[in-house]
């Protein structure tokens, strides 16, 4: 005997099986609904995570775009700096060539000055020698004029 709704009724074996099946179905339905509710919560949480990840991806893409622009601008700046450095390098090479030319001119001038110094030294020696000879001639003339008087 099975009590249905608090009544003591006798049921046939099919009825008992049907009731057992309905109870099992109700239990499964309840478990299934509970699983669907949990699944819905999980899906809702997952959707929130996906939405946040999509936002993070958009933010990252935006930042990457900004960085790409900055890198491009820096690349142009670097090319400009390299161009200017090449220009300075050419100018320094030109100045270096001019300084080399000036050094050669100064070396030539130093040789000429050394040559002139040597000539002046030779002339000084000649003047000194002539000075000595003139003094000798003056002594001789002075001595002769004293003896002639």
**Strand order, biggest sheet?**
1-2
Averaged pLDDT: 90
- Oligomeric category: single chain
| Low-confidence parts | 1-5
What is the number of helical segments per DSSP (H or I, 4+ residues)?
Answer: 1
Rg over CA atoms, rounded to whole Å, is 60 Å
- List the domain count as a whole number: 1
Main sheet: strands, sense, barrel: 2 strands, antiparallel
Shape: rod-shaped
- H and E order: EEH
Strand-residue fraction?
under 5%
Q: Please tally the β strands and state the result.
A: 2
- The separation of the N and C termini measures 193 Å
Structural commentary:
The protein has 149 residues and is mainly α. It has one domain. It has 1 helix and 2 strands; from the N terminus they run E-E-H. The chain has one helix at 13-148, and strands at 2-4, 7-9. The protein has a two-stranded antiparallel ribbon with strand order 1-2. Strand 1 and strand 2 form a beta hairpin. The longest helix is centred in the middle third of the chain and has 136 residues, at 13-148. The radius of gyration is 60 Å and the shape is rod-shaped. The relative contact order is 0.03.
Short description:
By secondary structure, this protein is mainly α.
Question: How are the elements arranged and paired?
Answer:
Elements: E1 2-4, E2 7-9, H1 13-148
Antiparallel strand pairs: 1-2
């Amino acid at each position: 005997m099975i009590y249905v709704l608090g009544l003591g009724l006798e049921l046939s074996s099919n009825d008992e099986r049907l009731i057992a099946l309905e109870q099992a179905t109700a239990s499964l339905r309840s478990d299934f609904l509970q699983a669907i509710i949990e699944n819905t919560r999980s899906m809702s949480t997952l959707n929130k995570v996906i939405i946040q990840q999509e936002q993070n991806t958009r933010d990252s893409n935006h930042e990457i775009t900004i960085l790409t622009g900055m890198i491009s601008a820096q690349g142009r700046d670097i090319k400009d700096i390299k161009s200017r450095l090449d220009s300075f390098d050419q100018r320094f090479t030109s100045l270096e060539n001019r300084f080399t030319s000036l050094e050669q001119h100064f070396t030539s001038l130093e040789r000429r000055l050394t040559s002139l110094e040597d000539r002046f030294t030779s002339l000084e020696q000649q003047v000194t020698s002539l000075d000595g000879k003139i003094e000798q001639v003056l002594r001789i003339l002075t001595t002769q004029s004293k003896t002639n008087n």
